Amino acid sequence: MSAPDSPAHFHALLQLRGRTAAWPAAAAAAAGLGRIVQAEEYLSQAQWTVLKSAECCHATHSLLHRNLGLLYMAKENYEEARYHLANDIYFASCAFGTEHIRTSGGYFYLANIFYGLKNLDLADTLYTKVSEIWNKYLNNHYQVLSQARTQQVDLLGKQFETDTGLDEAQEAEAIQILTSILKIRESTSDKAPQKTIFVLKILFMLYYLMVNSSKAKEYAMRALDLAKEQQLSVHEQNTIQDLLNLTSAEEAHPITW
């Protein structure tokens, strides 16, 4: 399959543009290629299609408004961007729930706007919310896998491959969102090291579930180094050390599933 921002992917989406949900996707691909004018054209078509259709689901409305929000962010029209991202969050909440990972993207992009406008308190609140949503989601999967590791369960007799519950595009989005938040948290690590460690531990879980032990270990090591540097509690340091021990055990005896 073509990369999401590749010309081949973009042209493939154009062939699907008669379908309602394909217009926002085509617009996103166009924007990814720097074709802002084309993205705006496709989103105008999407809006028209959605308005005339009584059958568009909340998820499609969410997708439309998210891409409109991103378009206006690219055009530096932040008032319009905030309007559309607020609608994205509303429709995503109706479709999936307010604490769902599908809704978290709207919070994240809205946080980016407030961060750029130097409204740091509101941005911080939204970044925290996004982090907590991803932490809850990944921790549920992580606990299942950790239990399997402890019990050495091998029901199917084949090597475990992945258990994020996400498709490739969702995993890429998770990495993009969480690493972006991490960069912001690291800029204030001296003031709030726990927030940085929280995101590092979420990234550890993500890569551990993706069966990328080297990246998982990297984030756990960074978390442990920061905990020691900031002289955080022994309990916190031991918790992070347990994560490192888990990756070492995984490398020595890969889990089967």
Automatic annotation (TrEMBL):
Parts forming coiled coils: none
InterPro entries assigned to the protein according to its UniProt record, in alphabetical order: TPR-like_helical_dom_sf (IPR011990), Zinc_finger_MYND_domain (IPR053248)
Gene3D superfamilies, A to Z: Tetratricopeptide repeat domain
Highest taxon, organism lineage: Eukaryota
Protein name as annotated: Zinc finger MYND domain-containing protein 12 isoform X2
Lineage: Eukaryota, Metazoa, Chordata, Craniata, Vertebrata
